[in-house]
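Budget justification, computational time. The allocation requested in the original proposal was used primarily to generate structure tokens for proteins on the priority list. As evidence of use, we reproduce two of the resulting records. The first is shown immediately below.
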Amino acid sequence: MGGLGRTINGSYAEYTRAPASNVALIEADLPWAELAAIPETYATAWTCLFRNLEIEKGQLLVIRGGTSSFGQAALKMAVNTGVRVIATTRDRNSFSIMEKLGAERCEIERPDLSKHIAEAKKIDKVLDLVGNSVLLDSLAMLCRGGRSCLAGFLGGLAPVPDFNPLLQMSSGVHFSFFGSFVFGTPGFPLSDVPLQQIAADAAAGQLDVKPTRIFRFDEIREAHRVMEANEARGKMVVVHA
């Protein structure tokens, strides 16, 4: 965790070393592939939901980019907490995926969603996985005291044009960013994330962490093809069999 494959080389190394601060003990009766799906995705989703956004039962949350593995993990955890969720996707055929996970409703993702969603200005929280291209639009749909957390860039990394908070942010709304690369640093210890409880919930059938696709180590090329073709429809795991 904390940047493996991005800021730290070694994603496909047969043997590697990791800082002790990036290692956590998890005891659970789960297959390795399911255990592998928990740390990066569910730790990040948990931190965004319960630390940055401070979700509470009964609140209305919009997840932009709901069919991504991160989006699906956040959707499951939010629904389990009693939060009402509206999820977005670019593909109407993916509505059923999110509805099965408990989304109250699905919307087609668009840059001006705040002008078309019926609940605009009544939304408590937004988990924005689309990124800079909709940052201002996410802020525009929040109620007073609402929170938006930017945690993904599915829409690309183009900069936000002429962002002027004085003119473009409603008074009383909150904006934050979270990136998983901070895990294991003094300000973001893994001990802050209830990984053991997440694994226990999964083992008890209360949280489905099963990856949508599992590949053998010698199937790396196919795994990348599936990912780059946007065919995964969820979390993929590679196991060294």
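The second record produced under the same allocation is shown here.
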Amino acid sequence: MGPHRVDRSVPAANLVGAVIAMSQAIPQFDGTSRVNPLTWSLQGVVPNPVVPGSYPIAGFTWVAMYQCYQNHVNGNNPFIWLRTWLDFLYNSQDAHNILHDSGFAEVPGAWTTEIYTLLNDPANGQNQNGNGACATIAGAY
């Protein structure tokens, strides 16, 4: 057997190639589809990007959490923690630097808009008040 050939037409996995590939994933939601996790996962992957320089397969990493939680005995609420973390992740230059240093790209603006639209919709609930129903809480967005 002779030496193996390396296909140089496939770009190396890197931050730039992922950003280029994921720029092709444009969220298309309405009030009904936005609440369906399957709709998000089907739209958040680009298996055969066509834009030059994009990595051949790309997709988002998902974090799935409920929006309705009962407060912990110490007063903390996981939904508020999630919102604080998302605000840091999407709006902080420090977070962007950490992502880039680790080889990850930040979530494109169109997707962060959809995420906040989902989380801000009172019809989706924001906090479990202990009796099984969600109710808006102080400080919710």
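A brief technical remark on that second record: Residues 126-133, 136-141 have pLDDT under 50 and may be disordered.
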